[in-house]
Specification:
39% of the residues lie in helices and 8% in strands. The protein is mostly helical and 151 residues long. The protein folds into two domains: 86 residues, no CATH class; 48 residues, no CATH class. Strands 1-3-2 form a three-stranded antiparallel β-sheet, with no helix packed on it. A hairpin with a 5-residue loop joins strand 2 and strand 3. Helix 3 packs antiparallel against helix 4. It is flat. The N and C termini lie far apart (42 Å).
Length: 151
């Protein structure tokens, strides 16, 4: 997607919005980073493998191969523009979520226990998966946990 296309979508979503919505854009086909690197080398007037070597280093801990636009249990609602979707997201009860966030702040600042900090973060955003990290075992432990909106 070009910068001008992205700007048009942002402006149109702004016009559609009534306040507080989350919009998700269809960005088109994903671009491989290797293809992007090769193209940039060529645009600089150089040759891949001769002037500049591309090195593949593998994933670092916590690094992902792709981004999820919405979490598994969430979905989108189409709008009048086929490239703009309105997100339908889980709602939290203010008192419940502030309690968890207060616990998270205490944990992160006072006790400095990374595992418990990540556990509390996953209670707020259970769909986040710690692929390729030492915290991935927490994913199964908290798989079905969520803070429901109180009635």
């Amino acid at each position: 997607m070009t910068i001008s296309e992205a700007c048009r979508l942002v402006l149109e979503a702004d016009f559609m919005g009534k306040g507080g919505e989350i919009f998700v854009f269809d960005m088109g086909k994903p671009v491989k980073i290797a293809d992007l690197a090769k193209r940039m080398i060529e645009l600089a007037g150089m040759r891949v493998g001769r002037d500049i070597e591309i090195q593949y280093t593998g994933l670092r801990p916590g690094e992902k191969l792709y981004e999820e636009l919405l979490a598994n249990k969430e979905n989108t609602i189409p709008t009048s523009n086929a490239k703009i979707f309105r997100a339908r997201v889980r709602e939290y009860d203010y008192n419940d979520i502030t309690t968890v966030i207060d616990n998270l702040a205490q944990q992160a600042v006072r006790e400095i226990n990374p595992e418990e900090t990540v556990r509390l973060m996953k209670m707020i955003i259970p769909e986040f998966k710690s692929n390729n990290s030492c915290f991935s075992r927490l994913d199964e432990e908290l798989e079905d946990f969520f803070i429901p909106k109180s009635k």
